[in-house]
Records
---
Amino acid sequence: MLNTTTWNRLRYSAYAPFYDAVVSRALRRPRRVALSNVDWEPGMRILLVGAGTGLDLPFIPHGLEIHLTDLTPGMVRRASARAERYQRDVACHVMDATQLLYPDEHFDVVVMHLILAVMPCPEQGLTEAYRVLKPGGQLCVMDKFQPDDQPSGWGRRAVNILTSFIATDITRQATPMLQHAGFRIQRDEPVLMSGLFRALLAVK
């Protein structure tokens, strides 16, 4: 199955010019719901991992230190432009989610929206998220997941060959991944398409 970091950089570079037109409105409510679950406090340091064009920014309170990363330069340029339009002070960087260039225990909140189902190795991304979070820090996840209580059937696995090539894996299970990385899940709720999309809040 074609799912590598290089392929992700290539395809999302191609998607960048029209990414917002495709996903902005459809995923506006799921983003808002997921981020409303975070216990925000003034002065927090926030990291948005795989943040794309910065569509989460409108739902993050002001008065926080925000860092934004994405694998694709085209996405980061658009995220930086969005931050300027919203008059938000955001440090935007091209960065691989599996090799975050931040020190240990540096952030209060890490946001991973629509990235765990895309990464070739989501476990490594979660390990990095855990590393850069302070003890008690929060992880906010919103993505497409296979139900935790059942394995993928042959039909879903067949469709996944196509969806993984185009954009995303639809066979990954959230709870095992997060728990294996050391997180404790506090909230888990369906937010779109009869539970295919879920919003989870976990703590370190």
---
Amino acid sequence: MKITLSIGGKEYHADTNLPLDISIALQSGVENPNAWYIPPPVIEAEYNEEEEWVGSVAEGGPVNFNHISFNPHAHGTHTECVGHITSKKNNILHSLTTSHFIAELISVAPIKVGEDRQINKEQLEEYADELEGKDAIIIRTVPNSNIKKTQQYNHTNWPYLTEEAAAYIASLDIKHLLIDLPSVDKERDNGKLLAHKAFWKFPKNTRKQATITELIYAPDQIIDGTYLLNLQIAPFVNDASPSRPVLYALNNK
């Protein structure tokens, strides 16, 4: 199916038969990316001793009936709402009420600052023209490789957005921030969560419909530029949910 969109008075076309999936699939075990110092996800057959059945066809059961144990924040691509940092239980299902957005994919090399690697406001300002009028920003950190799909992030002091960088994104009225890191904030920041709070403008002018998607992976074959973003979540009543962001190339031919 091919669709036509009107963006800023110009007509664009997208082919829904050519999706560009930038999510990391959740799988059982250590081949899954992991952060926040918890065990890897587990997907295993359910055993019911009382009824004497097993949820595995390979083990003699009638169907495969797996139990899945994971944490959306630690184990793969996930989308979160401001409920991630509030005492009130805001949930992602009520925050993300639409799923199609115009997004700008940019590649940024974090800058070394002491022992840290940061993405700062000045780097993002270089893309001011490209980001104008966009619903979403997708930040791909450089260097980039498929190691990100299995990276064990614990105790790595991953790169992060400065508070000023996150505030700048919010100032552009960009409602959806996607990044290929476990968090937009520093791994160990003593609970300050400066980038989260700046992006959501929390607590004074909280943007309840804004979302942050972390642990994406955009391979180099997907070039920087403007895309139609389809951001889908599992319908969890929770601050975060596993998600599947999919891009579609736009052209005006």
---
Amino acid sequence: MYHIAPTLLCADLFHMRESMDVLDRLGIDWFHIDVMDGNFVPNFAFGTDFLRQMTAVGKSPFYLHLMVTRPEEYVDLYAEAGVEYYCFHYETVKNPFRLCQKIRAQGMKPAIALNPAAPIHVLRDLIPYLDAVTLMSVEPGFSGQDFMDFTYRRIGELRAMAKGHKLLIEVDGGIDNEIAKKCIDAGCDVVVGGYFTLFQKEKSIADNYEAFQRAVKG
């Protein structure tokens, strides 16, 4: 079963509530929320107050993708904000096992993101502690980049390594409808929908969602 997770980083900030209402009605599986600190990545996004407003009105789960240098410091804060998935970057922590345990203790689902240059095998022993993995198919920090084709191989490697575990694989970055189908065929569960899928400006979100569904069903 495949899913699409809209990244609200690509939504129209002036009409965020309306966009979220439409996406909720379409039956998305979660909102993908990027938090960037201007340190781990050269960009800033979504402060805590704005996130609280989004979780107050959004009916779908929230998948928090933290592109920050000290993700262990914000677990309590985002648990209180109503986040369901807490995704941190492998590259940013010294004690990922401990952080996963802390996330779960706060009632959230631990998830981890992996940059394109990081080898898949670093997650081998972490998989039993995780609910999801986000494979970056671009360098993190900015929307609109080109998809890196070797990501298909990485999806297959992770799926094989996770055999026997209930692990959701999400792919994030540069995905259009054709690439989404290839990612799903390679073994991913969730593709992040951005400028090239759900938020194409020429059509409505609902029309874009319908086009995505047609494309991935082949």
---
Amino acid sequence: MEHTAHTTPRYTDVMFGYCGVLIDWRPRRTIEGLYPAGVVDMFFDPADPHGVAYYDDLADQGWSEERIIADYEREHGPAVAWIMRLYFEFQRLGFYDMIDGMPTLMRDLHARGVRLWGLTNFTVRGVREMHGKYPWLGLLGGTVVSASEGIAKPDPRIYGIAVSRFQLDPTRTLFVDGSARNVRAACAVGLQAVQFESAAQLRALTLD
């Protein structure tokens, strides 16, 4: 089905979060097969106050891999610290694929003259690897990466960085994210924002 009606797009710019919007991020894949299932479960235990989620947040804020590994070793001991090193080393395996329908939507938006951008809580190396694995991400005119800025969503300052750097008109910019909290923060600074459900949902909001 063709989606190229010659009407004016609803937005001049669309800015995407990465994980859960553009990229199907499956972190368990980074170490599955390297350790027994029980060890993998332990590593990703959401109840661990110094588990993967805790250190992912610190990585998003700019902590280096070596600093995280050292801190993880202090918390959990050297016998298991190697798992964190492998988690970083094989991070690329966690980038399972692009979200269904998103490459086509990005192409169609770009063809209609809508400028595309990224705003992600992730590491600089991780974003670089995503771009190397998925050429469609090259349609983004630029990406604000939290680890590079030392500020992560939903801190309102990171939205301001994106608006300034990409010269966005917030009233004509749609921000798309998988987190309701991040969407609320974007709305609070004046951006148009929606929580991601599917490529079809975004097509209906932007092109159809």
